[in-house]
Write a structure and sequence with these properties.
heterodimer, A: 375 residues, Alpha-Beta Plaits, four-stranded mixed β-sheet, three-stranded antiparallel β-sheet, 10 helices, B: 346 residues, alpha+beta, Immunoglobulin-like, 8 helices
Chain lengths: 375, 346
């Protein structure tokens, strides 16, 4: 089996195909700290792409509560259990990826969710990790915690869905690395649904073939960000091109967050797919859980994130998130503002690092009225 | 001379004998084993349970789990398929019968797979040896024609399209984009406009798997290697499958010849390489997860008798006989050599 380099696990690994990289790679950063699970992203996506007959159970984008939420049911814990112990030595993953742990006759380790697993998209919603004792109070990290995990297809550099399709009906676009299923060639075998660790390939119950998140490619082609990103009221998301570390473009927002400041981390890097959606981990959650979910970069990411007030560039990029529907190719921070530029170099966004503060006297002599907040 | 080298000629002779005898076996295996019987008049093309099948010779094809390409099938749930065929000089019909305790009619729920069966033909007129070399699913420049019957298509044809409202009886959704009619709505009628179809991507993309208005349970396909199965533009197969008492009875039919170059043409001047496969839906068998047979040579019976290329039919047993004869001569020769050496040594 060919060897490919996966920078997220710090080593080479087995993959059924030789390495082949797109000209550019679609990516995104989601800041978990800012999400309130309003599901506006979920509905924006649903309305755009999965409102048809046979797509009722489909959420190309969903937001689930961790630790107990999951959609489909147990997508993560079931695979983690199958994979067995996952150990790291420094920045190198010493356990097995889903490709290296593949059973005989299969391209990747995995399972096909059962029908009932798709029945409860809000399973575990808002449930905290434990019980709250009398007299409990908050410390950091929180002794009793939960957080929201926003999930779309990771448009992986080494997709397990693509690797396991015996018909090669799944392909990665050369121009932007978006992973798509050819709807004319798919025959509904569901090998992809079995192998995708994130269970983001979904079977259409009416057309009897599989579908997946398309990264809103019609928008991306027009230099716009995805619906889930532009509809986010918490402004937790940003789309951008993402590169391997040796080719990082540090004035590009996603590369800056992933490679420059290293505050955004891959989801379950140990699965070995070299994912392209990155998460700023929640600072209030105990590190044991986060280390398993986001790998060894967690302590550094949280530490950097907590010092954001002293880091104008980082602050600037975080403020550019959700500030425009346009695709931000490059950014710059100067004189108290963060600027976003499109591919032509035109300004598409400008945000102040600090909201201006206006102080007014509480008595208006001209009208003789007191100005104060009246509830 | 060492003890080992003394026996070298004998070992050579024996090795040659084994090689030739296994070749002889291969030749013997490639003998015609399956005949499409001639019958005057109408054929039981729509009735897999017709009494007309009772008198037709049965060829039992052993099937084994597919293991040549990922994903493989680990354990067979079907071990053999009973195959019969009739032709009347105009049309041809095949019947496949196999044991399957579970009747899996649908592929609607995300974890649901249907039963299925297929016939495979080498489109080109290859001899048996050439056919064995192309393995399953054909090869570049060596097209195969596949006739694939699906239990879910059969249900759709018999009972109407099996919709989400059938799979989930308590299902309700108020609205779909551009739908007409009243909830809970029905495919294809309530979704038949171009605008509504746009939300049924597989259907609007022209994928035959996604067409809710089916007219046949048998798909006409071609393949030229693993992973290349492609539905034909011209669908000209008929068929019908009935499950009864733990067995599937499925008929497949077509005219003996047609104008489609991608189709197998059942002409009287050749023999045919045919193979069989079956899928058990309750075991989640689909695609490469299947039981399949090796290639079998099929001959067509006509009003005048068995048709086909005479030299090939006669050639194979003669070839096998020659191979056996050569083996016997070589073994005797080896024995004589051994005896002579021993005498010399004594």
């Amino acid at each position: 089996m060919p060897k490919v380099y996966n920078w997220q696990i710090g080593r080479e690994m087995d993959y059924p195909y030789e390495a082949a990289y797109p000209e550019k790679q679609f990516g995104a950063v989601f800041d978990i700290n800012k999400c309130i699970a309003c599901q506006t992203c979920t509905l924006a996506c649903k309305n755009a792409w999965t409102s048809g007959r046979g797509q009722e159970h489909m959420f190309f984008n969903n937001v689930e509560t961790k630790p107990y939420g999951s959609y489909p049911l147990g997508w993560d814990v079931r695979l983690l259990e199958q994979l067995g112990g996952q150990s790291w030595s420094g920045g190198v993953y010493t356990g097995k990826t889903v490709f290296e742990a593949a059973p005989a006759g299969r391209a990747a380790l995995g399972f096909l969710p059962e029908d009932e697993d798709w029945a409860h998209p809000n399973h575990g919603e808002d449930e905290v990790a434990g019980t709250i004792d009398t007299g409990a109070y908050f410390t950091l990290p929180h002794p009793v915690w939960m957080f929201y995990l926003q999930r779309i297809c990771n448009h992986c550099s080494y997709p397990a869905c693509l690797a396991s399709c015996p018909r090669k009906a799944i392909y990665k676009r050369e121009e932007d690395g978006i992973v798509l299923i050819d709807q004319t060639r798919c025959r509904g075998y569901r090998e992809c649904a079995r192998s995708c660790p994130f269970k983001k390939v979904l079977y259409n119950t009416v057309t009897r073939v599989s579908e997946k998140c398309i990264a809103c490619y019609p928008l991306v082609e027009q230099g716009r960000q995805t619906y889930c990103t532009l509809s986010c009221i918490g402004r937790i998301r940003i789309n951008g091109w993402v590169n391997f570390p040796d080719k990082a473009v540090l004035d590009s927002p996603v590369d800056f967050l992933v490679h420059g400041r290293k505050v955004a981390l891959p989801l379950y890097p140990q699965f070995g797919l070299n994912v392209n959606i990155y998460y700023i981990p929640p600072i209030h959650v105990p590190s044991e859980f986060l280390l398993q979910m986001f790998g060894p970069g967690v302590p550094n990411a949280i530490d950097t994130y907590k010092r954001v007030k002293d880091d104008p560039e980082l602050l600037g990029v975080l403020l550019l998130m959700g500030s425009t529907d346009k695709w931000i190719e490059k950014f710059r921070v100067k004189e108290g503002f963060a600027y976003g530029y499109d591919a032509k170099g035109d300004e598409v966004s400008r945000v102040p690092l600090k909201e201006p503060i206006y102080i007014r006297p509480d008595f208006n002599a001209a009208t003789g009225a007191f100005l104060h907040n009246t509830p | 001379m060492t003890r080992f080298s003394k026996y070298l000629p004998l070992m050579f002779v024996l090795a040659l004998a084994i090689a030739l005898s296994s070749n002889g076996l291969a030749l013997a295996q490639a003998q015609p084993q399956f005949i499409s019987a001639y019958q005057d008049g109408d054929l039981p093309v729509a009735d897999p349970l017709s009494a007309a099948w009772d008198s037709v010779p049965v060829y039992t094809a052993s099937v084994t789990p597919q293991s040549a390409i990922k994903p493989t099938l680990f354990q067979a749930t079907i071990s053999s398929i009973d195959v019969q065929s009739l032709n009347n000089g105009k049309d041809i019909v095949f019947r496949l019968v196999w044991t399957d305790e579970t009747q899996d009619l649908h592929a609607t729920k995300p974890d649901e797979f249907r039963d299925a069966a297929a016939l495979q033909f080498s489109v080109q007129d290859l001899d048996a040896e050439q056919t064995q070399k192309i393995l399953c699913m054909g090869a570049a420049g060596q097209l195969t024609n596949l006739w694939h019957w699906k239990a879910d298509w059969q249900y759709d044809v018999d009972e109407g399209f099996f919709d989400v409202v059938d799979a989930y009886p308590n299902f309700w959704l108020d609205h779909y984009p551009f739908v007409v009619g009243e909830p809970p709505f029905r495919l294809p009628t309530d979704f038949n406009s171009d605008s509504a179809k746009r939300y049924l991507i597989g259907w609007s993309a022209g994928n035959p798997l996604s067409d809710p208005a089916r007219v046949t349970p048998v798909e006409d396909l071609n393949a030229y290697g693993f992973g290349t199965v492609t539905s034909q533009a011209n669908q000209d197969l008929l068929g019908r499958g009935v499950w009864q008492d733990g067995k599937w009875y499925v008929v497949f039919s077509r005219s003996l010849t047609d104008n489609d170059a991608a189709d197998i043409q059942f002409t009287t001047d050749r023999s045919f390489s045919i193979a069989f496969a079956a899928w058990d839906g309750s075991d989640q068998q689909v695609g490469a997860r299947k039981q399949l047979s090796t290639w079998t040579t099929m001959l067509l019976e006509t009003k005048e008798g068995i048709a086909g290329p005479a030299k090939k039919i006669l050639g194979l047993p003669i070839g096998a006989a020659i191979a056996v004869g050569v083996v016997v001569v070589l073994v005797i020769l080896g024995g004589v050599l051994l005896v002579m050496r021993r005498r010399k040594a004594a």
